[in-house]
Amino acid sequence: MHEMSVVSGILESVIPVARDAGASRVCTVHLRIGDMREVVPEALELAWEVLSEEDPLTLGCTFTVEEVHPRSRCRACGAAFSHDRFHCRCPECGSADTELTAGRELDIISIEVETP
Ligand SMILES: [Zn+2]
Questions:
Q1: pTM value?
Q2: Domain 3-70+102-114 classified CATH 3.60.15.10?
Q3: Whose C-alpha in 14, 63, 66, 113 is 20 to 30 A from the C-alpha of 74?
Q4: How distant, in Å, are the alpha carbons of 10, 54, 58 from that of 15?
Q5: How far is the CA of 89 from the centre of ligand 1 (A)?
């Protein structure tokens, strides 16, 4: 389950930032995750529940996810198009020479903290 490493990476980034900001608690973390990351929401939820308890700063902290659907650009004809995780062939010219422009995001957009 790679969601454990996804969540632990997120928390490892969030905790020092919150601590530096003098936060007593992290309330919510807002995330942006691309479909190509193949993160399973249920598994993410579970991993979050387990790992957020390990630090008093993130205990009881919640998160939101903004999903990003994959988009690509065709190197042959320049068309930009959106697609699902499995089909990234150009719909205009049929070329398979395409470049993913969105869908691999794994970003922390913002965090909400409580200060003493
Ligand atoms: Zn094309």
A1: 0.89
A2: no
A3: 66
A4: 9, 11, 7
A5: 8
